[in-house]
Protein backbone atom coordinates (compact mmCIF):
# COMPACT_ATOMS: atom_id res chain seq x y z
CA UNK A 1 0.00 0.00 0.00
CA UNK A 2 1.34 3.45 -0.89
CA UNK A 3 2.47 5.86 1.83
CA UNK A 4 -0.25 8.48 1.03
CA UNK A 5 -3.01 5.88 1.36
CA UNK A 6 -1.55 4.57 4.63
CA UNK A 7 -1.45 8.13 5.99
CA UNK A 8 -5.05 8.64 4.97
CA UNK A 9 -6.06 5.38 6.62
CA UNK A 10 -4.23 6.31 9.80
CA UNK A 11 -5.97 9.67 9.91
CA UNK A 12 -9.27 7.94 9.25
CA UNK A 13 -8.81 5.54 12.15
CA UNK A 14 -7.55 8.16 14.62
CA UNK A 15 -10.38 10.57 13.80
CA UNK A 16 -12.94 7.86 13.22
CA UNK A 17 -15.91 8.96 15.27
CA UNK A 18 -15.72 12.74 14.91
CA UNK A 19 -14.90 12.78 11.20
CA UNK A 20 -17.52 10.26 10.16
CA UNK A 21 -20.18 11.96 12.26
CA UNK A 22 -19.53 15.30 10.58
CA UNK A 23 -19.50 13.77 7.12
CA UNK A 24 -22.68 11.85 7.80
CA UNK A 25 -24.60 15.00 8.54
CA UNK A 26 -23.45 16.65 5.29
CA UNK A 27 -23.88 13.56 3.12
CA UNK A 28 -27.37 12.73 4.32
CA UNK A 29 -28.56 16.26 3.72
CA UNK A 30 -27.46 16.15 0.09
CA UNK A 31 -28.17 12.51 -0.74
CA UNK A 32 -31.03 11.88 -3.15
CA UNK A 33 -33.50 9.29 -1.89
CA UNK A 34 -33.01 6.87 -4.77
CA UNK A 35 -33.01 3.16 -4.00
CA UNK A 36 -29.28 2.82 -3.12
CA UNK A 37 -29.44 5.89 -0.86
CA UNK A 38 -32.48 4.89 1.15
CA UNK A 39 -31.48 3.48 4.56
CA UNK A 40 -32.22 -0.23 4.94
CA UNK A 41 -35.04 0.40 7.41
CA UNK A 42 -36.90 2.21 4.59
CA UNK A 43 -35.82 -0.08 1.75
CA UNK A 44 -37.99 -3.13 0.92
CA UNK A 45 -34.96 -4.85 -0.61
CA UNK A 46 -33.75 -5.74 2.89
CA UNK A 47 -37.03 -7.36 3.98
CA UNK A 48 -36.81 -11.06 3.14
CA UNK A 49 -39.77 -13.05 1.84
CA UNK A 50 -41.67 -14.94 4.52
CA UNK A 51 -41.24 -17.82 4.64
CA UNK A 52 -37.78 -17.95 3.11
CA UNK A 53 -37.69 -19.84 -0.18
CA UNK A 54 -36.23 -23.33 -0.11
CA UNK A 55 -32.49 -23.44 -0.58
CA UNK A 56 -29.18 -23.93 1.11
CA UNK A 57 -26.77 -21.64 2.94
CA UNK A 58 -25.19 -19.16 0.55
CA UNK A 59 -28.03 -19.14 -1.97
CA UNK A 60 -28.88 -15.68 -3.31
CA UNK A 61 -32.46 -14.69 -2.52
CA UNK A 62 -32.34 -11.45 -4.50
CA UNK A 63 -29.77 -9.02 -5.87
CA UNK A 64 -29.55 -5.66 -7.57
CA UNK A 65 -26.83 -3.44 -9.05
CA UNK A 66 -25.39 -1.00 -6.56
CA UNK A 67 -22.67 1.64 -6.27
CA UNK A 68 -19.42 1.48 -4.32
CA UNK A 69 -18.06 4.92 -3.50
CA UNK A 70 -15.44 6.51 -1.28
CA UNK A 71 -16.89 9.96 -2.02
CA UNK A 72 -19.21 11.04 0.85
CA UNK A 73 -20.35 14.21 -0.93
CA UNK A 74 -20.88 13.51 -4.63
CA UNK A 75 -21.29 9.73 -4.27
CA UNK A 76 -19.30 9.25 -7.48
CA UNK A 77 -18.81 5.53 -8.25
CA UNK A 78 -15.39 4.08 -7.55
CA UNK A 79 -13.69 3.65 -10.89
CA UNK A 80 -13.25 0.20 -12.37
CA UNK A 81 -15.57 -1.68 -10.01
CA UNK A 82 -18.98 -3.28 -10.45
CA UNK A 83 -21.16 -3.57 -7.37
CA UNK A 84 -24.18 -5.56 -6.31
CA UNK A 85 -26.23 -5.66 -3.15
CA UNK A 86 -27.45 -9.15 -2.27
CA UNK A 87 -29.82 -10.82 0.12
CA UNK A 88 -28.71 -14.37 0.79
CA UNK A 89 -29.39 -17.38 3.01
CA UNK A 90 -27.30 -17.94 6.10
CA UNK A 91 -27.88 -19.53 9.49
CA UNK A 92 -28.17 -18.36 13.07
CA UNK A 93 -25.80 -19.63 15.74
CA UNK A 94 -28.42 -22.31 16.49
CA UNK A 95 -28.68 -23.37 12.84
CA UNK A 96 -31.97 -21.70 11.95
CA UNK A 97 -32.19 -20.29 8.40
CA UNK A 98 -31.90 -16.50 8.24
CA UNK A 99 -31.65 -13.93 5.47
CA UNK A 100 -28.53 -11.74 5.55
CA UNK A 101 -27.67 -8.80 3.32
CA UNK A 102 -24.31 -7.90 1.84
CA UNK A 103 -22.30 -6.48 -1.04
CA UNK A 104 -20.32 -8.04 -3.87
CA UNK A 105 -17.62 -5.92 -5.56
CA UNK A 106 -15.78 -7.07 -8.70
CA UNK A 107 -13.08 -5.20 -10.64
CA UNK A 108 -13.97 -4.59 -14.27
CA UNK A 109 -10.40 -5.24 -15.37
CA UNK A 110 -9.80 -8.80 -16.52
CA UNK A 111 -8.13 -11.07 -13.98
CA UNK A 112 -4.71 -12.15 -15.28
CA UNK A 113 -3.40 -14.03 -12.27
CA UNK A 114 -4.27 -17.48 -13.54
CA UNK A 115 -7.35 -19.52 -12.75
CA UNK A 116 -10.52 -17.84 -11.59
CA UNK A 117 -10.57 -14.46 -9.89
CA UNK A 118 -10.09 -14.79 -6.11
CA UNK A 119 -12.77 -13.65 -3.68
CA UNK A 120 -11.98 -12.07 -0.33
CA UNK A 121 -14.86 -12.39 2.13
CA UNK A 122 -14.20 -9.21 4.10
CA UNK A 123 -15.55 -9.14 7.66
CA UNK A 124 -15.99 -5.59 8.90
CA UNK A 125 -15.32 -4.23 12.36
CA UNK A 126 -17.90 -2.78 14.73
CA UNK A 127 -20.53 -0.60 13.10
CA UNK A 128 -23.24 -0.58 15.75
CA UNK A 129 -26.67 -2.13 16.15
CA UNK A 130 -28.88 -0.11 13.80
CA UNK A 131 -29.76 -1.06 10.23
CA UNK A 132 -28.26 2.18 8.91
CA UNK A 133 -24.85 0.88 10.04
CA UNK A 134 -25.02 -1.97 7.51
CA UNK A 135 -21.92 -1.96 5.25
CA UNK A 136 -24.10 -2.61 2.18
CA UNK A 137 -25.56 0.83 2.85
CA UNK A 138 -22.53 2.75 4.12
CA UNK A 139 -20.45 1.56 1.14
CA UNK A 140 -22.95 3.31 -1.15
CA UNK A 141 -22.54 6.53 0.82
CA UNK A 142 -18.75 6.90 0.97
CA UNK A 143 -19.24 6.57 4.71
CA UNK A 144 -17.54 3.30 5.60
CA UNK A 145 -14.33 3.53 7.63
CA UNK A 146 -12.89 0.40 6.00
CA UNK A 147 -13.66 1.42 2.42
CA UNK A 148 -10.01 2.15 1.59
CA UNK A 149 -8.93 -1.28 2.80
CA UNK A 150 -11.58 -2.77 0.55
CA UNK A 151 -10.38 -0.57 -2.30
CA UNK A 152 -6.84 -1.84 -1.76
CA UNK A 153 -8.03 -5.44 -2.19
CA UNK A 154 -9.95 -4.49 -5.32
CA UNK A 155 -6.83 -2.80 -6.68
CA UNK A 156 -5.07 -6.17 -6.53
CA UNK A 157 -7.68 -7.61 -8.84
CA UNK A 158 -9.57 -9.54 -6.18
CA UNK A 159 -13.33 -9.55 -5.84
CA UNK A 160 -14.51 -8.51 -2.38
CA UNK A 161 -17.67 -9.76 -0.67
CA UNK A 162 -18.83 -7.95 2.47
CA UNK A 163 -21.53 -9.36 4.71
CA UNK A 164 -23.79 -7.19 6.86
CA UNK A 165 -24.08 -10.11 9.30
CA UNK A 166 -27.28 -11.27 10.95
CA UNK A 167 -29.73 -8.49 11.78
CA UNK A 168 -27.69 -5.58 10.47
CA UNK A 169 -29.68 -4.19 7.55
CA UNK A 170 -32.28 -6.94 7.64
CA UNK A 171 -35.15 -6.90 10.18
CA UNK A 172 -34.41 -7.96 13.73
CA UNK A 173 -31.66 -7.09 16.18
CA UNK A 174 -28.03 -7.55 15.16
CA UNK A 175 -26.42 -10.51 16.95
CA UNK A 176 -23.33 -8.47 17.72
CA UNK A 177 -20.23 -10.54 18.54
CA UNK A 178 -22.02 -13.89 18.47
CA UNK A 179 -19.15 -15.59 16.69
CA UNK A 180 -20.99 -18.69 15.51
CA UNK A 181 -23.47 -16.55 13.57
CA UNK A 182 -20.82 -14.16 12.23
CA UNK A 183 -18.54 -16.93 10.97
CA UNK A 184 -21.40 -18.54 9.06
CA UNK A 185 -22.40 -15.19 7.56
CA UNK A 186 -18.83 -14.67 6.30
CA UNK A 187 -18.57 -18.12 4.70
CA UNK A 188 -22.05 -17.88 3.20
CA UNK A 189 -21.18 -14.43 1.83
CA UNK A 190 -18.36 -16.05 -0.14
CA UNK A 191 -20.78 -18.70 -1.38
CA UNK A 192 -23.30 -16.02 -2.38
CA UNK A 193 -20.64 -14.08 -4.31
CA UNK A 194 -19.72 -17.21 -6.26
CA UNK A 195 -23.36 -18.14 -6.90
CA UNK A 196 -24.39 -14.67 -8.06
CA UNK A 197 -24.79 -15.17 -11.79
CA UNK A 198 -24.20 -11.54 -12.77
CA UNK A 199 -20.67 -11.19 -11.40
CA UNK A 200 -19.06 -14.01 -13.39
CA UNK A 201 -16.95 -15.26 -10.49
CA UNK A 202 -17.78 -18.95 -10.27
CA UNK A 203 -15.97 -21.32 -7.93
CA UNK A 204 -12.48 -19.92 -7.50
CA UNK A 205 -10.08 -19.39 -4.59
CA UNK A 206 -11.37 -17.70 -1.44
CA UNK A 207 -9.80 -15.92 1.51
CA UNK A 208 -11.25 -14.31 4.62
CA UNK A 209 -10.08 -11.09 6.22
CA UNK A 210 -11.31 -9.16 9.26
CA UNK A 211 -10.26 -7.00 12.20
CA UNK A 212 -11.86 -6.39 15.63
CA UNK A 213 -15.45 -7.64 15.35
CA UNK A 214 -14.33 -8.74 11.91
CA UNK A 215 -11.49 -10.63 13.60
CA UNK A 216 -14.03 -12.64 15.56
CA UNK A 217 -15.93 -13.32 12.33
CA UNK A 218 -12.76 -14.31 10.48
CA UNK A 219 -11.60 -16.55 13.33
CA UNK A 220 -14.92 -18.35 13.38
CA UNK A 221 -14.89 -18.70 9.60
CA UNK A 222 -11.44 -20.29 9.92
CA UNK A 223 -12.66 -22.78 12.51
CA UNK A 224 -15.92 -23.61 10.73
CA UNK A 225 -14.73 -23.76 7.12
CA UNK A 226 -13.69 -27.42 6.93
CA UNK A 227 -16.94 -28.77 8.37
CA UNK A 228 -19.41 -26.06 7.34
CA UNK A 229 -18.23 -25.02 3.88
CA UNK A 230 -15.83 -27.74 2.65
CA UNK A 231 -16.47 -26.94 -1.00
CA UNK A 232 -14.98 -23.46 -0.70
CA UNK A 233 -11.40 -23.28 -1.95
CA UNK A 234 -10.29 -21.42 1.15
CA UNK A 235 -6.62 -20.46 0.88
CA UNK A 236 -6.02 -18.39 4.00
CA UNK A 237 -7.52 -16.27 6.76
CA UNK A 238 -6.44 -12.94 8.25
CA UNK A 239 -7.81 -12.29 11.73
CA UNK A 240 -6.69 -9.12 13.52
CA UNK A 241 -7.53 -7.56 16.88
CA UNK A 242 -9.56 -10.67 17.67
CA UNK A 243 -12.09 -10.67 20.54
CA UNK A 244 -11.66 -14.42 21.00
CA UNK A 245 -12.92 -14.81 24.57
CA UNK A 246 -15.88 -12.54 25.32
CA UNK A 247 -15.71 -13.17 29.07
CA UNK A 248 -12.14 -11.88 29.13
CA UNK A 249 -13.04 -8.97 26.84
CA UNK A 250 -15.97 -8.01 29.09
CA UNK A 251 -13.75 -8.04 32.17
CA UNK A 252 -11.30 -5.78 30.36
CA UNK A 253 -13.97 -3.33 29.17
CA UNK A 254 -15.89 -2.91 32.43
CA UNK A 255 -15.31 0.59 33.76
CA UNK A 256 -13.36 1.81 30.70
CA UNK A 257 -14.17 4.46 28.08
CA UNK A 258 -15.30 1.69 25.72
CA UNK A 259 -17.73 -0.15 27.98
CA UNK A 260 -20.55 0.56 25.49
CA UNK A 261 -19.12 -2.21 23.30
CA UNK A 262 -19.74 -4.70 26.10
CA UNK A 263 -23.32 -3.49 26.46
CA UNK A 264 -23.80 -3.93 22.70
CA UNK A 265 -22.53 -7.50 22.92
CA UNK A 266 -24.94 -8.19 25.79
CA UNK A 267 -27.83 -7.17 23.54
CA UNK A 268 -26.41 -9.26 20.69
CA UNK A 269 -26.25 -12.35 22.89
CA UNK A 270 -29.70 -11.74 24.33
CA UNK A 271 -31.01 -11.66 20.76
CA UNK A 272 -29.27 -14.87 19.75
CA UNK A 273 -30.19 -16.63 23.00
CA UNK A 274 -33.57 -15.23 24.17
CA UNK A 275 -33.55 -17.46 27.26
CA UNK A 276 -30.75 -15.29 28.66
CA UNK A 277 -33.42 -12.71 29.58
CA UNK A 278 -31.22 -9.61 29.69
CA UNK A 279 -34.10 -7.38 30.79
CA UNK A 280 -34.50 -9.42 33.95
CA UNK A 281 -31.10 -8.22 35.18
CA UNK A 282 -31.51 -4.51 34.40
CA UNK A 283 -32.27 -1.66 36.76
CA UNK A 284 -33.98 1.56 35.63
CA UNK A 285 -30.76 2.93 34.12
CA UNK A 286 -30.19 -0.33 32.27
CA UNK A 287 -33.69 -0.37 30.82
CA UNK A 288 -33.31 3.23 29.64
CA UNK A 289 -29.97 2.39 28.00
CA UNK A 290 -31.46 -0.66 26.33
CA UNK A 291 -34.38 1.35 24.98
CA UNK A 292 -32.20 4.16 23.64
CA UNK A 293 -29.41 2.11 22.07
CA UNK A 294 -31.08 -0.72 20.15
CA UNK A 295 -30.66 1.08 16.82
CA UNK A 296 -27.51 3.08 17.51
CA UNK A 297 -24.66 3.37 15.02
CA UNK A 298 -21.27 4.20 16.49
CA UNK A 299 -20.45 6.66 13.73
CA UNK A 300 -23.43 8.91 14.35
CA UNK A 301 -24.43 11.63 16.79
CA UNK A 302 -26.37 9.08 18.87
CA UNK A 303 -23.42 6.70 18.78
CA UNK A 304 -20.97 9.30 20.04
CA UNK A 305 -23.44 10.30 22.74
CA UNK A 306 -23.79 6.68 23.86
CA UNK A 307 -20.03 6.23 24.03
CA UNK A 308 -19.64 9.42 26.07
CA UNK A 309 -22.51 8.87 28.49
CA UNK A 310 -21.51 5.28 29.26
CA UNK A 311 -17.75 5.91 29.45
CA UNK A 312 -16.16 4.56 32.66
CA UNK A 313 -19.46 3.04 33.79
CA UNK A 314 -19.63 -0.48 35.20
CA UNK A 315 -22.02 -3.36 34.73
CA UNK A 316 -23.28 -2.73 38.26
CA UNK A 317 -24.43 0.78 37.25
CA UNK A 318 -27.05 -0.77 34.96
CA UNK A 319 -28.01 -4.05 36.65
CA UNK A 320 -29.57 -5.39 39.80
CA UNK A 321 -27.26 -8.42 39.51
CA UNK A 322 -24.48 -9.23 37.09
CA UNK A 323 -25.66 -11.60 34.34
CA UNK A 324 -22.07 -12.54 33.55
CA UNK A 325 -21.90 -14.30 36.91
CA UNK A 326 -24.67 -16.74 35.94
CA UNK A 327 -24.16 -20.21 34.43
CA UNK A 328 -26.47 -19.36 31.50
CA UNK A 329 -24.51 -16.31 30.37
CA UNK A 330 -21.16 -18.00 30.93
CA UNK A 331 -22.27 -20.96 28.83
CA UNK A 332 -23.45 -18.75 25.95
CA UNK A 333 -20.21 -16.77 25.90
CA UNK A 334 -18.06 -19.88 26.24
CA UNK A 335 -19.87 -21.59 23.37
CA UNK A 336 -18.70 -18.72 21.15
CA UNK A 337 -15.13 -18.72 22.43
CA UNK A 338 -12.51 -19.29 19.74
CA UNK A 339 -9.75 -21.85 20.04
CA UNK A 340 -11.55 -25.19 20.27
CA UNK A 341 -10.92 -26.15 16.63
CA UNK A 342 -7.75 -25.80 14.57
CA UNK A 343 -8.21 -23.83 11.34
CA UNK A 344 -7.61 -26.02 8.31
CA UNK A 345 -5.85 -23.26 6.33
CA UNK A 346 -2.97 -20.88 7.14
CA UNK A 347 -3.94 -18.00 9.42
CA UNK A 348 -2.28 -14.61 9.91
CA UNK A 349 -3.28 -13.36 13.36
CA UNK A 350 -2.34 -9.80 14.29
CA UNK A 351 -2.78 -7.74 17.42
CA UNK A 352 -1.80 -4.31 18.72
CA UNK A 353 0.67 -4.30 21.58
CA UNK A 354 -1.17 -1.48 23.36
CA UNK A 355 -4.72 -2.49 22.47
CA UNK A 356 -6.91 -0.59 24.88
CA UNK A 357 -10.16 -2.31 23.78
CA UNK A 358 -9.42 -5.98 23.03
CA UNK A 359 -6.96 -7.50 25.53
CA UNK A 360 -3.76 -8.82 24.01
CA UNK A 361 -3.62 -11.66 26.53
CA UNK A 362 -6.79 -13.37 25.32
CA UNK A 363 -5.68 -13.02 21.67
CA UNK A 364 -2.33 -14.53 22.58
CA UNK A 365 -4.19 -17.40 24.28
CA UNK A 366 -6.09 -17.99 21.03
CA UNK A 367 -2.96 -18.19 18.94
CA UNK A 368 -1.42 -20.61 21.43
CA UNK A 369 -4.58 -22.75 21.45
CA UNK A 370 -4.59 -22.95 17.67
CA UNK A 371 -0.89 -23.76 17.61
CA UNK A 372 -1.34 -26.51 20.20
CA UNK A 373 -3.89 -28.13 17.90
CA UNK A 374 -1.48 -28.11 14.96
CA UNK A 375 -2.73 -25.08 13.06
CA UNK A 376 -0.51 -23.11 10.70
CA UNK A 377 -0.53 -19.70 12.40
CA UNK A 378 1.60 -16.64 11.75
CA UNK A 379 1.28 -14.49 14.89
CA UNK A 380 2.45 -10.89 14.96
CA UNK A 381 2.16 -8.20 17.62
CA UNK A 382 2.53 -4.55 16.54
CA UNK A 383 4.29 -3.29 19.61
CA UNK A 384 3.63 0.47 19.40
CA UNK A 385 0.06 0.31 18.05
CA UNK A 386 -3.25 0.66 19.86
CA UNK A 387 -6.52 -0.84 18.62
CA UNK A 388 -7.38 1.52 15.75
CA UNK A 389 -3.82 2.02 14.49
CA UNK A 390 -3.31 -1.74 14.75
CA UNK A 391 -5.75 -2.07 11.87
CA UNK A 392 -3.63 0.25 9.75
CA UNK A 393 -0.26 -1.15 10.79
CA UNK A 394 -1.25 -4.74 10.08
CA UNK A 395 -2.86 -4.10 6.69
CA UNK A 396 0.27 -4.34 4.50
CA UNK A 397 1.26 -7.64 6.12
CA UNK A 398 -2.29 -8.93 5.80
CA UNK A 399 -2.45 -8.11 2.10
CA UNK A 400 0.98 -9.63 1.47
CA UNK A 401 -0.13 -12.78 3.31
CA UNK A 402 -3.23 -13.15 1.13
CA UNK A 403 -1.28 -12.37 -2.04
CA UNK A 404 1.05 -15.28 -1.30
CA UNK A 405 -1.84 -17.61 -0.48
CA UNK A 406 -3.58 -16.83 -3.76
CA UNK A 407 -0.26 -17.37 -5.55
CA UNK A 408 -0.03 -20.84 -4.05
CA UNK A 409 3.10 -20.12 -2.01
CA UNK A 410 3.76 -22.27 1.03
CA UNK A 411 3.90 -20.67 4.45
CA UNK A 412 5.23 -22.01 7.70
CA UNK A 413 3.83 -20.22 10.72
CA UNK A 414 5.77 -19.20 13.80
CA UNK A 415 4.02 -21.43 16.36
CA UNK A 416 7.37 -22.81 17.42
CA UNK A 417 8.83 -19.36 17.89
Q: What's the topology here?
A:
Elements: H1 3-14, H2 16-30, E1 60-66, E2 81-91, E3 97-107, E4 119-123, H3 135-138, H4 147-155, E5 159-163, H5 179-195, E6 205-211, H6 213-228, E7 233-240, H7 246-253, H8 259-272, H9 284-293, H10 301-310, H11 327-335, E8 347-352, H12 360-372, E9 377-382, H13 387-406
Parallel strand pairs: 4-5, 4-6, 6-7, 7-8, 8-9
Antiparallel strand pairs: 1-2, 2-3, 3-5
Span between N and C termini? Answer: 28 Å
Number of helices: 13
Biggest sheet details:
9 strands, mixed
The helix content, as a percent range, equals 25-40%
Mean pLDDT: 91
Instruction: State the CATH architecture.
Output: 3-Layer(aba) Sandwich
Shape estimate: globular
What's the total count of β strands? Answer: 9
- Which class best fits the helix and strand makeup? alpha/beta
CATH fold name: Rossmann fold
> If you compute it from the alpha carbons, what radius of gyration comes out, rounded to the nearest whole angstrom?
20 Å
Identify low-pLDDT runs: 1-35
Q: Please give the order of strands in the largest beta sheet.
A: 1-2-3-5-4-6-7-8-9
CATH class value? Alpha Beta
Give the count of structural domains. Answer: 1
So, the CATH homologous superfamily?
Alpha/Beta hydrolase fold, catalytic domain
Strand content: 15-25%
Organism: Actinomadura barringtoniae
Keywords: Signal
GO molecular function, one term: triacylglycerol lipase activity
Pfam family, one: LIP
Amino acid sequence: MSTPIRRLLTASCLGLVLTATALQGSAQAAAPQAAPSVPPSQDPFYTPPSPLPDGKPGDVIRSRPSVFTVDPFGKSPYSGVKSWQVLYRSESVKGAPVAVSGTVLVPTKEWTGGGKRPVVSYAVGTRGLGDECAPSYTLTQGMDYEELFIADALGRGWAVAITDMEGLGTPGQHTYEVGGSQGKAVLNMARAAQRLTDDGLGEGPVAVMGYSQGGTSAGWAAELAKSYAPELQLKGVVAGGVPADLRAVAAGLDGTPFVALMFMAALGYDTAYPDLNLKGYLNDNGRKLLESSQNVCLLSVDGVSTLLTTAFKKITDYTTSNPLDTPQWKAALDSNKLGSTAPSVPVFQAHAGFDEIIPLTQADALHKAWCAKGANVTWKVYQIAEHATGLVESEPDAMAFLTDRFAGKAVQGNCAG
